[in-house]
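Dear colleagues,

I hope this message finds you well. In preparation for our joint manuscript, I am sending the Mga helix-turn-helix domain-containing protein (Secundilactobacillus silagincola) sequence together with its predicted structure, so that both groups work from identical material. I would be grateful if you could confirm receipt.
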Amino acid sequence: MDYTFLLSKNDKICLEILSLFTQQTDQTLNKAELSQSLSLTNYQLNKYFETMNADLAVVSEDTPCYLDEPNKGVWQAFGLNSYVLQRATLLYLNRAPLFTALEYQFFYNHLYTKSGYVAANYMSVSVFYRSLDSLEAILEKHHFFQASSLYASKEFTIRLHLFQLYYTLYNGVSEPFEPLNPLVEDLVSAIQAGLPAALKPTQETKLSTFLRVWLLRMLNSDPIGSSQLLKIKPTKSSKTMHQQLQTLLADQLTLTDDEFNYLYSFLVAQGYLGFDQMHELAANIPAVDDLTNQFLDELQDTNVLLKTHLVDNRQLKDSLLSIHFQFTTFYIEPTTFIDPDQVQFFSELYPAFDVAVSHNITKLQRREDLHLTQKMAVNLYFSYMFALINAVPTELMRDQVHICVDFSQGVLYTNYVIQSLDAFNHAHIIIDTELTPDTDIYISDFHSKKISQTQVIWQDPPTPVDWSNLADLILDVKRQKLPDLFPNQDTQEPE
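The corresponding structure tokens are as follows:
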């Protein structure tokens, strides 16, 4: 979900312009083109230019960040990167009246009166009330209350989308609700004690953000309720964690079994407690097994493998379990691996996998209960791809590319090139020690008229350009093989 709809109109335009700068390698924008694309007058553009420079001065840290016009009609950004852009986004978010109204509605409306909250936030009374009155309709328009997983619980959906908002916009830049920091640090430490492995920095950030939303909803008397599909089986470890968390929260609230079950389910869904716990909890959700079995059936039906019984089923099934468990429960809409333009690279490098993955996603898109958006479809594409790449060895693939390496200088140089080819080991390359009828590419330092296969001649150690050309050649070979390997398959990427 794109939460920029919460920003004020002017700040949203500023953010859009700043984002356009970061998408250009030279970080320049043509004013005339910008004016046309955003339907803005020259006067409006100049006002936004001044506003953005003032905002960049606020969010810049050690390195100054600013916009300039070195040539008439051309704007250029200096010191602008993704981190500064994130800080600017937070600046705009926290001064947006609609965001203030959202925080009141979901975290404080049972704790403070409207007038008291307005006074505490130094906000115009009329602006606040107007924002609060329009909030629900705006959230409805942007599908905030629509479940993004198979859960039907309204509270579950609200919490999940609030978590996505704060995790997406604050991640790595700042911490939301900073007064909670000491308590959250203690809670993370207590949870860490019950986990099998130390939390990585990204995991700790995710957990910390989740806990803040969890705490504030409980403190505002918005319980998760007992109608959760996920029901953990208490263990000695989980009971100990529950008791430790209750001790930390004793002064503020009682940690109910339902609320602890909700938190513990999140830990399981994120893989913090291992696959055994995930297997056990997933038993409550038949859709997880259904989706996993559907994918494995698709893998076999599309005939992309030479032998399916030699696939590391445990590793692949665990990966698919993790994908589908998160997808059907705590699905956190990603901000990376969602660009459909990047799908083409993987579809060309792994055409056989692309066949199976694309067909499976097409089936998922036809299911009304999954609410599969384009971003979700693209992210699933990458998730499935990575699961297959990690679990299926090259030897089982039907779209192998056979390369024979044969240098006149002997074994040492030949072996050097072979080891260097490990950089392409995920492109389903098979190294032939001898030239065979299956060989697709022959690499040597001399051309041979006796060889009919495509020849690559390197009379000097290969340069980066040589390796790049070889990569292009490997993709060409894969493309040429595809119609013969899968004559009846449509290999279009998901939309």
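For the figure legend, we might mention the following. Residues 464-485 form the longest helix (22 residues). Confidence is low (pLDDT under 50) at residues 491-495.

With kind regards,
E.M.
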